[in-house]
């Protein structure tokens, strides 16, 4: 039990101030667009057991609190001294702290009287860490070694002395070495700031008080989380959704969840989830309880229920995880992880979908589901060196909420990613011209509370041999679902050379080679709508039309609002139109969740029990057999379903036996629909 609650509040605020100052120091001294503008970085204070006891809520990545730091600390053994700074980007050696090679972590111990009190921690997403493509990440990469240089936990500084041999080797294996070192020095500035402030705190309150306060703030957050979870009706809730692996020739990949709510805890069992894949979509969670890339949606929900809740790893202690080894969210060693955020976001959607069954009035409709990063590399015409930069985070809108519209042009889960100013990008990458960047009309799902709009970005390349890569592009097949009568949002699209005779709809980008004058236009998804669209105030729909969020046609079709000349609201025609739509609807109840026609047609062909049967037969197999069996079964069964042949779950073992015996010539992949 916490004895001194006033002292707890004082220390909690002190810790928070330290991490905010660390994050600001990192941000102000960084070199790359990824950090200076997009803000893909983080700073934290970590206990000796590896739990984050303070993380910034104002700057950088807002998902730090569930990062499991314990194995990174354990990897360094007893050889920890004052002046040491450690470095790693290795997902496997850290067992899920790092989740792809582009995230480079630096941390340092805080000593008092010869004993480690805690650690100061930081990370940056590096623009490039080597590998087969500029920017290091491509969805089609299928081995970890293809994604860049791998650094197991080791010392960058030993008792204050830089390991220059290691540093030269590391930077020589990246395309942006000078900028990377600049961002690493920004991390060191953050660590130095944290060390100085913690030394001041220890000198004022003594080390034992600080150590006790670390335990107390974690326990306090845990108690708050359990209190909120206890308000959820106990029971078992199931949900599933699909990662779109078509850019890597993989079709649809299921994420399945059984959420059990009991005794103030969430137990999340992902049995039935698709096996790991030969693509960069794997997420190295190591099935760790409260892992940050699995529970972001739950943490956001907790913070919404209590905006003043303590923000540290205590919040994730009640979140228990069970994931079979060899699945896409708990892969075996050596898998590619670069585009793991597509999978992470889908896990979040699935958890929210399950939780919304228990507390439907507390959770929004589905957001855009896409946390894409659009990268471009061009050769410098004078030096012939490769310039690499992020163009923009290509993020869609968030879902409509139970009390307000979704947020336009961004989503709650990735709201830390900031837009890159066009002027800055064109200065850093002079061979790139931004032709258009704005919100996308008619992309947000209709509802009493409209889904947030997606965005449109169009750019032109003015250099030969340019390469565009994109990762985490999602929901080009199935749109974001609407809730409680709301309609789905839109799917995404990518056009090459739009408006010309050479126009192509190229879908998701993996690695795209472009030349002088080529134009790329991307439209991101809008979030699903929440609530009955006919209950949205007509004047609000009129305002949406005038602002360019909703077209006149959609206003009439989905909202029953008639807009006349020059944007005027025709109230008489609107009343008649809404009466007509209500009559067409009849007594049919509003859908708790509306997946849209494409997903509902797929569900008719592929019921959950059929997916379960496939997962069950593949689960005990070795990795390669699991992967090939997954593709072959979905291909063969998909072919039969499309031909009109019924396939029951109990038919799956016989079909698999025929495939193993070579009696069937299965195609390489299943078509998504």
TrEMBL record:
<keyword id="KW-0378">Hydrolase</keyword>
<protein>
    <submittedName>
        <fullName>N-methylhydantoinase B</fullName>
        <ecNumber>3.5.2.14</ecNumber>
    </submittedName>
</protein>
<dbReference type="GO" id="GO:0047423">
    <property type="term" value="F:N-methylhydantoinase (ATP-hydrolyzing) activity"/>
</dbReference>
<keyword id="KW-0614">Plasmid</keyword>
<feature type="domain" description="Hydantoinase B/oxoprolinase">
    <location>
        <begin position="4"/>
        <end position="533"/>
    </location>
</feature>
<dbReference type="InterPro" id="IPR003692">
    <property type="entry name" value="Hydantoinase_B"/>
</dbReference>
<dbReference type="GO" id="GO:0005829">
    <property type="term" value="C:cytosol"/>
</dbReference>
<dbReference type="Pfam" id="PF02538">
    <property type="entry name" value="Hydantoinase_B"/>
</dbReference>
<dbReference type="InterPro" id="IPR045079">
    <property type="entry name" value="Oxoprolinase-like"/>
</dbReference>
<dbReference type="GO" id="GO:0006749">
    <property type="term" value="P:glutathione metabolic process"/>
</dbReference>
<dbReference type="GO" id="GO:0017168">
    <property type="term" value="F:5-oxoprolinase (ATP-hydrolyzing) activity"/>
</dbReference>
């Amino acid at each position: 039990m916490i004895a001194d609650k006033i002292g707890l509040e004082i220390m909690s605020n002190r810790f928070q101030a330290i991490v905010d100052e660390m994050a600001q120091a990192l941000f102000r001294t960084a070199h790359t667009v990824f950090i200076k503008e997009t803000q893909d970085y983080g700073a934290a204070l970590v206990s000796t057991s590896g739990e984050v006891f303070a993380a910034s809520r104002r700057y950088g990545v807002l998902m730090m609190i569930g990062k499991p730091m314990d194995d990174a600390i354990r990897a360094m053994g007893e050889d920890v001294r004052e002046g040491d700074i450690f470095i790693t980007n290795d997902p496997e050696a850290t067992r899920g702290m790092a989740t792809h090679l582009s995230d480079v972590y630096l941390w340092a111990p805080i000593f008092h009287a010869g004993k480690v009190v805690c650690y100061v921690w930081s990370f940056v997403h590096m623009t490039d860490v080597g590998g087969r493509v500029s920017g290091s990440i491509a969805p089609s990469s299928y081995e970890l070694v293809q994604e860049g240089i791998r650094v197991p936990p080791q010392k960058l500084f030993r008792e204050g002395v830089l390991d220059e041999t290691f540093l030269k080797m590391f930077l020589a294996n990246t395309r942006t070495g000078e900028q990377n070192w600049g961002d690493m020095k920004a991390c060191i500035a953050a660590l130095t700031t944290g060390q100085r402030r913690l030394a001041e705190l220890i000198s004022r309150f003594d080390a034992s008080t600080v150590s006790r306060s670390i335990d107390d703030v974690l326990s306090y957050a845990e108690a708050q989380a359990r209190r909120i979870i206890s308000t959820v009706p106990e029971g078992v809730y199931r949900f599933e959704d699909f990662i779109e692996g078509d850019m890597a020739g993989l079709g649809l990949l299921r994420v399945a969840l059984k959420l059990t709510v009991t005794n103030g805890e969430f137990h999340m069992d992902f049995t039935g989830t698709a096996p790991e894949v030969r693509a960069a979509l794997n997420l190295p969670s190591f099935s760790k309880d409260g892992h940050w890339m699995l529970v972001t949606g739950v943490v956001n929900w907790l913070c919404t229920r209590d905006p003043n809740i303590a923000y540290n790893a205590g919040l994730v202690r009640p979140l228990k995880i069970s994931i079979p080894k060899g699945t896409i969210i708990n892969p075996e060693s050596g898998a590619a992880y670069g585009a793991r955020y597509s999978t992470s976001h889908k896990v979040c959607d699935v958890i929210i979908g399950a939780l919304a069954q228990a507390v439907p009035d507390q959770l929004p409709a589905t957001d855009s589901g896409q946390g894409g990063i659009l990268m471009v590399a061009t050769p410098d015409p004078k030096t012939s060196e490769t310039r690499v930069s992020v163009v923009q985070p290509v993020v869609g809108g968030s879902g409509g909420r139970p009390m307000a519209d979704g947020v336009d042009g961004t989503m709650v889960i990735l709201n830390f990613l900031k837009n890159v100013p066009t002027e800055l990008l064109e200065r850093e990458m002079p061979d790139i011209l931004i032709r258009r960047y704005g919100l996308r009309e008619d992309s947000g799902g209709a509802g009493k509370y409209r889904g947030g709009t997606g965005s449109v970005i169009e750019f032109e390349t003015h250099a030969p041999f340019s390469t565009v890569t994109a990762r985490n592009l999602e929901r080009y097949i199935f749109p974001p679902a609407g809730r409680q009568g709301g309609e789905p949002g839109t799917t995404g699209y990518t056009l090459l050379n739009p408006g010309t005779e050479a126009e192509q709809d190229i879908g998701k980008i993996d690695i795209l080679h472009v030349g002088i004058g080529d134009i790329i236009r991307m439209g991101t998804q809008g979030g699903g709508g929440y609530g009955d669209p006919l209950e949205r105030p007509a004047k609000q729909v009129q305002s949406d039309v005038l602002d360019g969020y909703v077209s006149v046609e959609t206003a009439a079709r989905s909202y029953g609002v008639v807009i006349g000349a020059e944007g005027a609201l025709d109230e008489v025609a609107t009343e008649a139109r809404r009466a007509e739509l209500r009559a067409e609807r009849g007594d049919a109840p509003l859908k708790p969740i509306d997946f849209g026609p494409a997903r509902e047609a797929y569900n008719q062909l592929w019921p959950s029990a059929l997916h379960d049967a496939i997962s069950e037969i593949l689960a005990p197999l070795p990795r390669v057999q699991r992967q090939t069996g997954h593709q072959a079964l979905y291909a063969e069964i998909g072919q039969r379903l499309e031909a009109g042949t019924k396939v029951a779950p109990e038919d799956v073992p016989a079909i698999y036996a025929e495939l193993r015996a070579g009696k069937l010539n299965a195609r390489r992949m299943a078509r998504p629909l």
